[in-house]
Amino acid sequence: MFCNNCGAQVPDSAKFCTHCGFRFPTNADAPADAPAQNPIPASQTFNAPPAAPAPDPIPASQAVDAPPAPPAPDPVPASQTFNAAPVQNPIPASQVYNQPPAAPAYAPNAPVYAPPVPPVYAAPPAYAGGVPARAPEGPKPGHTVLHALGKSPLALIAIIAFTLASILAIVQSILSQETISDFSRNLLELMDADRDVTNAFDISLGASTWSSIAASVVTSGLLIAGMWITWSTVRRSDNRMTTSGLTMIRVIETIELVFVCIGCGVALLAALAGGVGISSALKEASGSSNSDMPDFVRFFLENYFLFVLVLACFLTLSILYYAGIVRTVKRMRATVKTGEPNHKVSVFVAIVNMILAVSTVLRVSLTGLVLEAAETALKKQEAPKEVLALLSFGEIGAVGAAQSVLMAVALFCFGLFLFRYRNAMRDAQQAN
Q1: Burial class (CB in 10 A: 0-12, 13-18, 19+), 380
Q2: Segment 247-254 mean pLDDT
Q3: Would 70 be classed as within a structural domain?
Q4: Number of folded domains in the chain?
Q5: Residue 87 pLDDT > 60, yes or no?
Q6: Quick check: is 64 in a domain?
Q7: Neighbours of 417 (CB within 10 A)
Q8: For residue 372, is it within any domain?
Q9: How does pLDDT run across 377-389, given as a tens digit for each residue?
Q10: In this structure, are residues 166 and 224 in contact, taking their beta carbons and an 8 Å threshold?
Q11: Neighbours of 191 (CB within 10 A)
């Protein structure tokens, strides 16, 4: 037979090729359990081609000696043997990874899997200063009353009238500066004052007049701003009212109260000090038989202390009036801040406002008649021209008349507003 690898001829019983060392397969190499193939039926047999003729044997003279077999390799000494890595410790049973179970086989009629819906996340309540935020509350009774009063036209008319009256008062002060200067000159001429004293008095009077005008502008402006801020904040529909306007009014009225107290004290001290000189003048007049003192002057000097008493009562009422305004504004501010109704406002302030309104209207309407009667009386007594010139100081022009009427309207409306405020707050307190 011939070697299937190199084609050399070898004996039939050989197991290895003597030329290339190829191992010939034997029956022992075939698998024992290989199933026998089904025999080909006779109907499907075909005639195999004729076998090729065997090649002629190679003569001995042309035979090629087979190459010697390669020597076997020397064995590896024990010193150079490779030590295999030791077997790792087996994983303990407690750490054996349990694989997830296999997914179940698909069934056509099985229900469709629906994943669970996660719960809706609800945000925690907002915190401010460590205290949980509360839900918004409804309008408080005090805020409800203020909101209703702010919508009434009474408060709006009072604020508009006060604003216009304050502006006209400043204009009147500027226009009447020359009149005040003429009045002071005539008064000093009656007292036979020196020219230097008159000039110094004119300078000081002008400075004091302009300073009073500047102070009036500041105080009136702050009062007007506070009134408009308060009116706008009580008309808000969200009940988020602020106290800035009432705070401004309270500060201004407190400052005016301090100045009124100081002025009243100085006026009383001056009046009491002037009583000594008046007493001595009365003694001299009573001792002189040919005294040419006018009757109204004598009446005034004889009843001087009675006039001082009336002045003291008037100044005391002025102090109580401004104190009542400060107290009323303070309680209104507390109602705006807390929303709790409080009807304890000053009734005295409301009554005085209405009395001042009526007296202002009477003063405007009767000033002309009073000045005319006084001028007639002075002319009958042949009073000097300087005294008659003093009457011009009391005249009220068009600007003064308009300012007085507007201020009377503002005072009357403020008085009515205080009465309505008191009644509405009292009803709200009784309802709660």
Answers
A1: exposed
A2: 93
A3: no
A4: 1
A5: no
A6: no
A7: 20
A8: yes
A9: 777 766 666 566 6
A10: yes
A11: 9
